[in-house]
Fold these 2 entries.
Entry 1:
Amino acid sequence: MDPTTGATALPAEAQGAEPSARIRARLVAAGKRFHANDNIAEFIRDGELAALEDEVAARMQALLETLVIDTDSDHNTRGTARRVARMFLHETFKGRYHAMPAVTEFPNAERLNELMIVGPITVRSACSHHLVPILGRLWIGVLPSEGSNLIGLSKYSRIADWIMSRPQIQEEAVMQLADLLEARLAPDGLAIVLDADHFCMQWRGVKDESHMVNSIMRGAFLKSAELRKEFLQLVRS
Ligand SMILES: [Zn+2]
């Protein structure tokens, strides 16, 4: 640790290196996982995201050249490298590079203990395997207890968007969302259903309609078949 900046010292080979190498060195030094669907915002220093965008744009430009596209005379692709870099870092994959949106929990003062369902929330993601879109609809069921925290309804979509705006695998995405909501809300029960279309199956490969539904049930939803049935019936209607 540098006592003046609080920054962890970087290994010599990462000093003065490209931003991605510096960020990676910090992650490795901290023993943190940095898979495609992990958030790494706390390892990116102020101003470094702009430098990372420059680096991604340069690499994207190199990729376009490797694909033998004449970006000098083709007016359509002239700014593509920069547009894609911005899109990855600040839009489609922002859930990796930006911190979670601010969400204020408040205590369950009214002692609500009825099943509450939020949805359908439209979710947009990309598959980790091909980086092509996954578009889906998400439902979240919460059974609060007296000790639970609550959050505003709109916050569920903001949290879901943050989790989904990463290269994802559908099963892992719902797991990450469930873990986060459980930690923040401490509900008696939590249920999530995600129904999504995978464009990697429609646009390429078998070119078949590919639809995937998965669900997660925790706490009271695991214990009570009645509660599960009530949730799934409300989702279907
Ligand atoms: Zn795919």
Entry 2:
Amino acid sequence: MRALVVRGRGATPAVEEVRLPAPGPGELRVRIRAAGICHSDLAMVDGTLAPAYPLVLGHEATGVVTEAGPGARLAVGTPVVLNWAPACRDCWHCRHGEPWLCAANTAASVPRGETAAGEPLQVTLGLGALAEEVVVPERAAVPVPPGLPPAEAALLGCAVLTGAGAVRNTARVAAGESVAVIGLGGVGLAVLTAARRAGAAPILAVDVVEAKRELALAAGATDFLRSDDTLGKEVRARTGGRGVDHAFECVGRAATIRAAWRATRRGGAVTVVGMGGKDDLLSLSALDVFHSARTLRSSVYGSTDPDREVPELAAALAAGDLDLAPLVSGTVSLAEAPEALARLARGEGARWVVTFPD
Ligand SMILES: [Zn+2]
Ligand SMILES: [Zn+2]
């Protein structure tokens, strides 16, 4: 089968023929219908997440079970959304209601399958979903209703789950609270959508790219602001001079975490959704931390339990209560995926989704 493979840190990904093993005990083979291209894929290519190579990219996808290994319970033909952080249900975090921090999910890549030349192959976050097929543990496949639009269903596995969870579970945004969202990639747009569903107002969308304005308004923002030195002033002008109740940082940089901090009111909360680098240091004065009375926290995988929340989001999508169309910039073939990755790196569009013919 064919997969999008990156050969080493900084190399240009290319489509290759690869081989996966047959599903073992408790594993499934899933034929991929659609797979989104996420910022974390760029972090796999540039080495920020320190995966091993050669590596199949992709971790946000939907597909159909085509083969079940011994003991696997999901039937062939079941539509699923893939979960890149399947909970073991047995570690300390799982037993204490924090499955998103499961101790079993710490590897950026795991070995699975081989290249056409017989070299050992790695797959991203246990999935490697930018591929015609994956072989995954059954707990990494969440069953969903049939008939969902594939490109939108794929996003339930990363961007939408993360954005919805950050708003609902981590920040617990209430109706009428004010929100700012900094960084309008797939996750940032999903945060806007979730903030609108939560009844937040105003919802201020912030990005350096003016071209994101229309996308932001379509996804749920009430205002679009350019990210520059006047941001704090612009935010306060729209929030009674105070700043927002909740700021969401969806970039993963110290500079934008600081911008989110400054855009938040005294006593408000900053939720860091973007994943940054280990050398990018955040500096806040001790006086500011005390006097502002703000909360700074992160949201890993939206603080969600995907086994419960992916089906809820899938049901909302099926019922027409969740409009994800603004998040999908376009669909491309697997052969076009390298160019779509380059577009993502340039900040063009929201989510590019690779779709596969039936
Ligand atoms: Zn992702
Ligand atoms: Zn666990």
